[in-house]
From TrEMBL:
Protein name: Sodium:proline symporter
The species this protein was found in: Lysobacter defluvii IMMIB APB-9 = DSM 18482
Location in the cell: Cell membrane
TM ranges: 6-28, 49-72, 84-101, 129-155, 161-178, 190-210, 230-252, 273-297, 317-338, 367-387, 393-417, 424-441, 447-471, 478-498, 504-523
Catalytic activity, as annotated: L-proline(in) + Na(+)(in) = L-proline(out) + Na(+)(out)
Keyword Cell membrane among record annotations: yes
């Protein structure tokens, strides 16, 4: 295979490694006593998790299979700037959420999901839009992680792709099923320690075994001019900018982040997210450089599948012991994210579908727990089925993240600006989704007036992205100045240009269209929402007295509720 020899672990060795990993995590999760479980602890550990566990859990959740595989793919496609575009913007995603996260916690200290807060702000339709997007995203994330497990096992052992998918799926489900989020964060601590330690050993070993500095001098000729520079225009427009837009949407739209936000002690939000930002960025950029080395040595992805690059490099340039370490590192990374997705999905169904809608605030905690567990089983089966399609992970991540861009401004704006209505929220998101899909799949001709309109909204979207970041860290005035200034400043460069970059064009349209519609509709509104109502409406499920009080206080037909 392209002149490279590959070492495979024996089947008994692989099975023993998998048994040791999943057996160990299962025993670790059993430390959580069944008698001490309650529905709120199952979903967010009652909001009192300390700094060390929270930072480790956030890091483990986002150093996932995609961080390995997609970062390497980016390095292989775009050269030395590829991993930086992947790792830096991914790290920024984690940092981006904390200033808004403090606002979310202040409004609803006892929240379980972000959609639950949106229901308290707007009503059922807006809640279901946000909950539905999270369900889709988490199932796709499960699929991506199980796909990575299948590729790893198929490359490094005589077992087949389907065996790796099944073992990872059932193994993760086994240790997460009973205790939910608590099991996820408890096992994350061990998993992240193992991952970071293994990465610190494996990344330099692959580099030196591939030839060290010699491979750089000899392999430099394989680079194009764009791949050889840190300031690659191609890498920025095709990878960096679309991913930048996508990961900011992940920060708002992904329940796995929100769940940890609601779990950590409120005074520890900032240090937790800053620590996770640094550890994620450094590790993922390093892993992405393995893809750059693969490009330097002339390795071709096995079967044309970029997901095989990381296992190929490990198999070629590591000895048997380090291949075993690498195997556990990847299994740990994908399992830590898969269990987070299962916990997130269970919380969404328990809270947003059963607790706040079917049960209408009078949920039976025992029934809720079983709803969560059944959700995990169904989600695992769905992830296993979809993993069989073997979709390219990097393309999938950019698509889902861009799709979530439609909800970013309506969600953030709704929790700061009292004039945004339920109708403005739902209309802006739905229209934006339609425009995004039409642009992404080129259902709208990217020529003439239609292309110019899409570029105009994309330019507004670029201003929205930068403006929201400035607003989160520096306040409203800075956000408006940066957002409006960026849109006006970029307009001469984007009009007539972005139509050649469909992924970036559609991603920015998701932001631009939703923001424009939401703002215009809200300016016509006379509503002035009292944000103190959110705290009263969003309560713990096990506190029945508080639930009854809220029901009596709010009744039916409150303004702003569907």
């Amino acid at each position: 295979m392209d002149g490279f020899s590959f070492y495979q672990l024996q089947t008994p060795t692989v099975l023993l490694l998998l048994l040791a990993f999943y057996g160990g995590t299962f025993l670790l999760s059993m430390r959580i006593g069944r008698k001490s479980e309650n529905v709120d602890g199952y979903m967010n550990s009652t909001g009192a998790v300390g700094f060390g566990v929270s930072a480790a859990s956030m890091t483990a959740t986002w150093i996932w299979a995609a961080s390995f595989y997609a970062a390497a793919t980016s390095g292989y496609k775009y050269g030395i700037s590829g991993p930086i575009h992947y790792g830096l913007w991914g790290a920024l995603m984690i940092l981006f959420i904390y200033p808004f996260g403090r606002r979310f916690r202040a409004l609803a200290p006892e929240a379980h999901t972000l959609a639950e807060i949106i229901q308290a702000r707007h009503g059922r339709s807006s809640q279901m839009i946000l909950a539905g997007s999270n369900i889709v995203g988490s199932v796709i994330s499960l699929m991506a992680n199980f796909t990575a497990a299948g590729a790893l096992v198929a490359m490094l052992s005589p077992l087949e792709f389907v065996h790796g998918v099944l073992i990872a799926g059932l193994g993760t489900l086994a240790y997460t099923l009973w205790s939910g989020f608590r099991a996820s964060i408890l096992t994350d601590v061990v998993q992240v320690a193992a991952m970071l330690g293994a990465a610190a050993i494996i990344i330099p070993m692959v580099f030196f075994n591939a030839g060290g500095t010699e491979v750089i001098s000899q392999g430099w000729d394989r680079f194009t001019a764009e791949q050889a520079t840190l300031f690659s225009k191609t890498a920025f427009l095709e990878q960096g900018a679309p991913y930048f837009a996508a990961v900011l949407a992940y920060a708002i739209g992904n329940q796995t982040i929100a769940q940890r936000l609601f779990a950590v002690r409120e005074d520890l939000i900032k240090p937790t997210f800053v620590a996770a930002t640094v550890s994620y960025g450094a590790t993922v950029i390093g892993l992405g450089m393995i893809g750059v080395v693969a490009l330097m040595v002339g390795m071709e992805p096995a079967g044309g599948d970029y997901n095989n690059l990381i296992p190929q490099m490990a198999s070629t340039y590591l000895g048997p012991v380090l291949i075993g370490v690498f195997f556990i590192m990847v299994i740990g990374s994908l399992s830590s994210t898969a269990d987070s997705d299962l916990a997130a999905l269970s919380s969404i169904v328990m809270t947003d579908i059963y607790g706040r809608n079917i049960a209408r605030g009078r949920a039976n905690p025992k029934v809720m727990l079983w709803v969560g567990r059944i959700t995990m089983i169904v989600a695992t089966m769905a992830g296993l089925i979809f993993a069989s399609y073997r979709i390219d992970i990097l393309s999938l991540l950019v698509f889902v993240g861009a799709l979530w861009g439609s909800i970013v401004f309506p969600v953030i704006g709704s929790l700061y600006w009292g004039r945004i209505t339920n109708r403005a929220f739902t209309t802006s998101v739905l229209v934006s989704l339609v425009v995004f899909c039409a642009a992404r799949f080129e259902l709208i001709p990217l020529v003439g007036v239609s292309a110019l309109l899409l570029e105009l909204f994309a330019t507004i979207g670029a201003g929205v992205v930068l403006g929201l970041m400035a607003f989160g860290f520096f306040g409203l005035r800075a956000g408006l100045v940066v957002g409006i200034g960026a849109a006006l400043g970029l307009m001469p460069f984007t009009l007539g240009f972005l139509r050649d970059y469909t992924v970036l064009l559609s991603s920015l349209n998701a932001y631009g269209v939703s923001t424009t519609i939401c703002v215009l509709m809200s300016l016509r509104s006379s509503e002035d929402f009292d944000f103190r109502l959110i705290r009263r409406r969003v309560t713990n499920f096990h506190d029945e007295d508080a639930d009854d009080e809220v029901l009596e206080m709010e009744g039916a037909g409150q303004p702003g509720r569907a």
